[in-house]
Amino acid sequence: MRALSVLVVTTLALALLPVLLIRAVWGRMNTGRWLEEELVVGRNGISIRQKSFAGLALGRRLPRLWHVLTGEYAWVGPRPVGKDDLSDLAIRDLVRLEARPGLVSLGTVRQAMGIAHDGIETLERATALEWRRRDSPALLVKALLTSLVSRRRTRQGAGFSLFGVEIDDRTMSETVTELIEAAEAKRNLRAAFVNPDCLNKAFQDDNYLTALHSADRVYADGIGLRIAASWHGHSLSDNVNGTDLFPRLCQEASRRGLSLYLLGARPGIAAAAAKAMRRANPSLQIAGTHHGYFRGEQSEDVCRQVSASGADLVLVAMGAPRQEIWLQRHHRSLGAPVVLGVGGLFDFYSGRIPRAPQAWRDLGLEWLFRLWREPSRLWKRYLIGNPLFLYRTVFAGRRDLMA
Q: What is the domain extent for residue 164?
């Protein structure tokens, strides 16, 4: 592997020689220096004089290829620790010093993709452990591919509008806190998640659009929303999807003594999802479950059952747009302060449908995994719907999307 690293770095340096020279000259002209150095800590506490081109322009980190050549850096690993930050490093973070720093960090890449839901430091520890366990070529390919599809821009504000739908920009942590605090305070909050397929439907369905307009919160779900926002200069803080939110919501509800009601999906699926969450959080209070296969005239009976359960949060999994339209009409009858539509979430946690592996999610390709698993059901949604959404984003949505 060492010989391969030397070969790759040498080849890259030769291929990028004109770029390296231009970047070095730019730094010299604008700062008076060719290079800058920062003292950082590498594997086993070894001091490294980390090299960068002077100035903050693109290509600043290219000289760090030298550290890969010398063996001080790995291709992929945790971020190096600043010398001044070493004393503040928590005991649980010392695992980072057991691995060489990385030219590419999966932690920062996942942050750029909006899926660093557990915090950047937690991901850096995971990166260090992952580097020690797995062979480097596979991990490098994964990190580099992720880097290509990730983009970071300056956050523009608290939300934006797309196709006339006001979308809230929240981190995963902010979303969980908002839902839990509303439930504790008995403050009514109706939330929805939207992905490209949802917005395609809202573009053509006035009832669905009205339901989204009247919701208290509409969260951005998926790589498609991230791309649409970035094209217009808005950086979404996180990919706030119900599937990643659910276990965090259950954990916090368990800690605060709040109860959940799971309504929707096929018979038995909500109960299975509730059982899985109880295994993960033994003190979690499940007020009840009910399938989503009931007729419109049965809605009042279902609402009475949910209200009688005394649930603090009700999660409704009927699929869009049915769940949002149903909640708009019946949320007050449910008796719970917090209600939200969660699509096919229960199918994942019941075990009926497998979740995409983390590598697919890192690359923003969870949709492709789902298409591969269920092509006959999802081909139209993804192969036609995704390009249509991007087309509408560029043309029809241009006048509607604003920071």
A: 159-369+374-394
Same structural domain for residues 194 and 246?
yes
Do residues 117 and 176 both lie within one domain? no
Number of domains making up the chain: 2
Query: How far is the C-alpha of 393 from the C-alpha of 366, rounded, in Å?
Result: 21
Asked whether residue 195 is assigned to any structural domain, the reply reads yes
Whole-angstrom Cα distance, residue 346 to residue 351?
A: 8
Element (H, E) at 146: helix 136-149
What proportion of the chain, given as a percentage, has pLDDT over 70?
80
pTM, whole model, 2 decimals?
0.73
107 and 169 housed in the same domain = no
pLDDT of residue 326: 97
255 domain residue, yes or no: yes
HEC states along 17-85?
A: HHHHHHHHHHHHHHHCCCEEEEEEECHHHCEEEEEEECCCCCCCCHHHHHHHHHCCCEEECCCCEEHHH
Average pLDDT, the chain: 84
Reported as a single tens digit per residue, the pLDDT across 44-74 is 778 889 899 998 887 888 888 888 888 888 8
116 and 200 both lie in a single domain: no
Which of the two residues, 298 and 146, has the higher pLDDT score? 298
pLDDT of residue 269: 97
Q: Spell out the residues 6+ positions from residue 4 whose beta carbon is closer than 8 angstroms to its own.
A: none
Cα distances (angstroms) measured from residue 190 to each of 49, 76, 177, 377: 52, 42, 14, 29
If one compares 163 and 183, the residue with the highest pLDDT of the two is 183
Residues 139 and 179 in one domain: no
